[in-house]
Write a sequence for this structure.
């Protein structure tokens, strides 16, 4: 799995790490049950702070793509599928586009909620 | 991610069969010639074994001695010819002729010297074979080994590869990347568990020294059973999956370039695990896709791992960056 970050980008580094992992799940190069590198090892490898990596891992956990267990590291969950990962990527695109148009976080959530109300 | 990254590599041919067999044939012919020349002047029983002071202490009939000397040469010749065929074009194939030539030359020298010492002697018990003959045999072995190396051909696969043709990764300037993948061997994990169990049992019942040695062996085997291979701005690193502290690191400045290819353990390494061979070393837990690093020392480092194509592309990209600085 290739994890890529660009310190010059406006996207936070933790989100860039999450995006790399999401992309690897989406294109099938990482499968359920595989272990991610330990946060400390990945931080040293990329030359970033270990908390940055943990922020990215936390995000993936909230999306249901990885499990975080103390002492056992991060593991791709059984429910993580390329489809789930692509959904996360779509949400990311929605947020980026909405922010580019100047929408507040409240307005973005409202937008999604309204989409859910209509049957 | 890993398509269109592959670069093909020209295969090298193993040394020709006659090169491998030649020293044994020559040694047999020379011994036959020496025997024919001195046969009329040999005693009834030859002195064929010599004690610490060079004094004879073992005797054989001339005909028997000739057969006992030539038969091993024929056996060695056949063994080396078969080995040469089986090991293909790997670096070990380049060293087999060296060993073959050295063995043939030194054994032919010692046998020939024994025959000549016995020639024209009425009583075999007076025959002496001084120690310096062993030194001369070693010199013969070295010289013949050198000839074998020359006849086997250069076999330098690195020299035949076009420079700069290795795959690269599209990595925008300033951005950083880290590639990693685990590779595991269930066989080695099973061996580790067995050795660990044996260590515990023997440690309690037999002696704690045996137990400790077995437990240490189990830890080493276990550490190698599942390994995370990491490629990043620092180079390549191997660390146990469960304990992220590398046991082997190859920094970028020691690497010339990297390629990926199919690796067949049986013919190239002859076994699983962390292998060290003349000209190369590496971690081979399974056959199949692997990364081959050419080092500045002239050696190769091999590691078999999935998606090695991406790994070597990233390594080459970082190597380019380091050189353009």
């Amino acid at each position: 799995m290739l994890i890529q970050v660009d310190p010059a980008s406006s996207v936070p580094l933790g989100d860039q790490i999450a995006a790399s992992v999401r992309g690897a799940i989406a294109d099938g190069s990482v499968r359920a049950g595989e272990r991610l590198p330990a946060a400390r090892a990945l931080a040293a490898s990329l030359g970033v702070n270990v908390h940055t990596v943990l922020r990215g891992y936390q995000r993936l956990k909230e999306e249901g793509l990885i499990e975080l267990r103390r002492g056992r590291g991060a593991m791709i969950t059984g429910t993580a599928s390329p489809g789930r990962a692509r959904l996360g990527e779509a949400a990311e695109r929605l947020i980026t586009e909405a922010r580019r148009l100047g929408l507040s976080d409240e307005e973005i959530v409202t937008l999604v909620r309204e989409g859910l109300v209509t049957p | 991610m890993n398509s269109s990254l592959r670069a093909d590599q020209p295969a090298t041919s193993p040394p020709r069969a006659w090169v491998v067999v030649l020293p044994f044939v020559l040694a047999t012919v020379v011994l036959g010639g020496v025997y024919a020349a001195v046969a009329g002047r040999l005693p009834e029983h030859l002195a064929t074994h010599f004690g610490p002071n060079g004094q004879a202490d073992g005797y054989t009939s001339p005909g028997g001695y000739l057969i006992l000397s030539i038969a091993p040469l024929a056996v060695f010749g056949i063994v080396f010819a078969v080995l040469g065929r089986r090991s293909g074009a790997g670096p070990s194939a380049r060293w087999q002729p060296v060993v073959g030539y050295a063995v043939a030359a030194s054994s032919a020298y010692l046998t020939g010297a024994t025959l000549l010492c016995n020639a024209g002697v009425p009583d075999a018990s007076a025959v002496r074979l001084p120690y310096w003959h062993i030194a001369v045999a070693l010199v013969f072995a070295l010289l013949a080994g050198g000839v074998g190396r020359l006849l086997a051909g250069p076999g330098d696969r690195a020299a035949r590869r076009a420079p700069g043709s290795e795959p690269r990764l599209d990595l925008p300037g300033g951005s950083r990347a880290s590639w990693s993948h685990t590779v595991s061997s269930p066989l080695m994990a099973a061996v580790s568990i067995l050795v660990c169990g044996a260590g515990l049992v023997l440690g309690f019942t037999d002696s704690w020294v045996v137990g400790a040695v077995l437990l240490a062996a189990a830890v080493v085997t276990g550490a190698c059973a599942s390994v995370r291979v990491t490629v990043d701005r620092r180079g390549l690193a191997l660390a146990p999956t469960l304990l992220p502290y590398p046991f082997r690191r190859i920094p970028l400045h020691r690497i010339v370039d990297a390629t990926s290819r199919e690796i067949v353990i049986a013919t190239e390494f002859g076994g699983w695990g962390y292998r060290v061979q003349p000209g190369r070393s590496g971690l081979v837990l399974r056959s199949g896709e692997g990364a081959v690093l050419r080092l500045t020392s002239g050696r190769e480092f091999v590691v078999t791992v999935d998606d090695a194509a991406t790994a070597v592309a990233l390594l080459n990209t970082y190597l380019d960056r380091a050189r353009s600085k």
In short: The domain at 179-324 of chain B is CATH 2.30.29.30 (PH-domain like). The longest strand of chain B covers residues 176-184. Confidence is low (pLDDT under 50) at residues 1-12, 155-161 of chain B. Chain B touches chain A at residues 1-2, 169, 171-172, 174-182, 228, 230, 232-234, 239, 241, 244, 307, 310, 314 (CB under 8 Å).
